[in-house]
Amino acid sequence: MKTSSSIIVYASLVGAAFGFVIPQARDSSSNSTTYNETQILQLALTLEHLESAFFSGALTAFNDTDFTDDGLPVWARGRFSEIASQEQSHVQLLTSTLGSNAVQACNYSFPYTSPASFAALAQVLSGVGVSAYAGGAQYLTTKQYITNAAAILSTEARHAAWIAGPVNKGNPWSGPYDTPLTVGSAYSLGAQFITSCPSFNQLSVKAFPSLTLSNTTLGQPSSVTAGNNVTVEGQYVAFFSGLNTTFVQVSNGQVVIPSNSMGTSYAVLTNSNGTATDDTITAGVAVLQFPYGSGGDLETNGRMEMAEAMM
Ligand SMILES: *[C@@H]1O[C@H](CO)[C@@H](O)[C@H](O)[C@H]1NC(C)=O
Ligand SMILES: *[C@@H]1O[C@H](CO)[C@@H](O)[C@H](O)[C@H]1NC(C)=O
Ligand SMILES: *[C@@H]1O[C@H](CO)[C@@H](O)[C@H](O)[C@H]1NC(C)=O
Ligand SMILES: *[C@@H]1O[C@H](CO)[C@@H](O)[C@H](O)[C@H]1NC(C)=O
Ligand SMILES: *[C@@H]1O[C@H](CO)[C@@H](O)[C@H](O)[C@H]1NC(C)=O
Ligand SMILES: *[C@@H]1O[C@H](CO)[C@@H](O)[C@H](O)[C@H]1NC(C)=O
Ligand SMILES: *[C@@H]1O[C@H](CO)[C@@H](O)[C@H](O)[C@H]1NC(C)=O
Ligand SMILES: *[C@@H]1O[C@H](CO)[C@@H](O)[C@H](O)[C@H]1NC(C)=O
Fold first, then answer.
1. Of 77, 139, 222, 287, whose CB is crowded by the most CB atoms within 10 A?
2. What pTM does this model have?
């Protein structure tokens, strides 16, 4: 039986000090950051390269016996190799789509130490993939690319559901809606695992400073801290859960966790109480899990770790 105790605290997944952000075009009239289709496809390819390296790396690191010794089902490793190969296919499609604008693979460092901690991080990363495509969709304009992105998104969602459900014995979906992430948020979640990239990628260092929420229990106060000396007091924590965004002002270093959060949710710090975009986000992203059982009973304790049985 795999245990969650050895699993690294992934919920405080943070924007790394090292990283890059795809250059943003600021629309001076509306104050909203916008992205063109090439930039979105480059972000998608960046994350696909990362996922491809993540899954194939774990297969190199751990054999069948390692998987079963760590309490993972005997069939899990075989399916993870299907996923690795599908991520590679996504890389090839996007590389071919982007042509000379294609970004290349980077070097990565993933913090898993065992098949079970790999599976826990796999749940987070496949969820980030889904949220990145959902959030980036609005910027795609070419019909064929929208179709391709939809076909990739639904496959990523199947990966995420299989990992969260059969492998990690949790809820296979979050609710009626997956949670879209802003482009900068999705990038920040991936960037923390990137250690270096080819200069060809023309990376400029920027990811949101880290955001950590402690003791995340629905309806209860949680302490908020941010990296890079970002002030949290008086700012807002925007909770993304499904299509809902709930703003809570930080007071005495704390926010009360909204009780409508469910499944995989994310939190960012904003300087606005009504808009959470790459213009207003000042730190993030914290990944929050509010698992629920097959009877629909929502567990009130948000978890940093995953993979405890609750079917
Ligand atoms: C997209 O934005 C990037 C970065 O600002 C720019 O270099 C590129 O020319 C733009 N592409 C299109 C098709 O507008
Ligand atoms: C699997 O890997 C472990 C080390 O992680 C090693 O001890 C074992 O011999 C390997 N088993 C097979 C069948 O290769
Ligand atoms: C990856 O790391 C190796 C070893 O440090 C280095 O030689 C290589 O240039 C790096 N590659 C990229 C793409 O950053
Ligand atoms: C975490 O929240 C629970 C439930 O509200 C509370 O009992 C506990 O004291 C809190 N722990 C910390 C360290 O704040
Ligand atoms: C935070 O502020 C302290 C005191 O001003 C400074 O020494 C430190 O370098 C700052 N840290 C960061 C990450 O900016
Ligand atoms: C928003 O949260 C409420 C619970 O407060 C939930 O019933 C509803 O489905 C959510 N809506 C969306 C669009 O996620
Ligand atoms: C949001 O901020 C505005 C301006 O400070 C204020 O008027 C409004 O009451 C605030 N709304 C909420 C829900 O806090
Ligand atoms: C643009 O966004 C910033 C930060 O949220 C805000 O302070 C400013 O008032 C906004 N400007 C306009 C014109 O909306």
1. 287
2. 0.85
